[in-house]
Design goal:
By secondary structure, the protein is mainly beta. It has 2 helices and 8 strands, in the order H-E-E-E-E-E-E-H-E-E. It has one domain: Sortase, Chain: A, CATH 2.40.260.10. It is 12% helix and 34% strand. Strand 7 and strand 8 form a beta hairpin. It is globular, with a radius of gyration of 16 Å. The chain starts with 14 loop residues before the first helix and ends with a strand. InterPro entries: Sortase, Sortase_dom-sf, Sortase_F.
Length: 207
């Protein structure tokens, strides 16, 4: 795992500072954590219009009907040295919210990371993330009982050494979501050389 700059914690509400500080470390965590080793297309599409932001609430479950994801959400943060924690390899079907940034539904770019594969599990929670299409739906259930509903804007693949930190984690004026996993080509050390990033925006909420 690579090092990253120190970041202020969520308690200071410094979402941009924390997110930008953790961006490179998140990519690096996935770089070292993702090593190589049926879809459901029945979901309804949603209109690509922004909704009012939601108050903070910790997310606990992620649903992406078009790629068959229905996963528990854990958390990842930064350790005492400001290094991003790696999503746990022993829970490949779980995704993890980056807790130093906004919660999904709050103003700003909330981030959720997950493995594409692991040495023991060839198809982990975000294996099909790259196949998402514009306007397909992402739902994040939160501890307050609400569900933040997002629509996909775009899906991009970035080389890890050219990761666009500002594009992914920069300040936004609305509630947005980033889903991040590994992708690209395998290196000689059997790690993926890129990150797949899904960009989405809040379209509504449900209870």
């Amino acid at each position: 795992m690579a090092e990253a700059p120190l970041a202020r914690r969520r308690g200071g509400r410094a979402h941009r500072a924390a997110a930008l500080a953790g961006a490179a470390a998140l990519a690096a965590a996935l770089a070292t954590g993702c090593a190589s080793g049926t879809k459901d297309h029945g979901a309804a599409r949603v209109a690509a219009t922004a909704a009012t932001v939601m108050p903070a609430s910790v997310p606990d479950r992620l649903s992406i009907p078009d790629i068959g994801v229905d996963a528990e959400l854990g958390t990842v943060g930064l350790d005492a040295q400001g290094v991003m924690q790696t999503p746990p390899m022993d829970q490949p079907m779980r995704a993890d919210w980056y807790k130093e940034g906004p919660t999904p539904g709050e103003k700003g770019p909330a981030a959720i990371a997950g493995h594409m594969d692991t040495p023991d599990v060839p198809k982990a929670v975000f294996y099909d993330l790259k196949d998402l299409k514009k306007n397909e739906q992402v739902k994040v259930h939160r501890e307050d009982g609400s569900t933040a509903v997002f629509a996909v804007d775009e899906v991009d693949t970035f080389k890890k050494d050219k990761f666009p930190t500002d594009k992914v984690y920069g300040k936004t004026d609305k509630a947005e979501l980033r889903l991040i996993t590994c992708g690209g080509e395998l290196t000689a050390s059997r790690h993926w050389d890129s990150n797949v990033v899904v960009f989405a925006h809040l379209t509504g909420k449900a209870w």
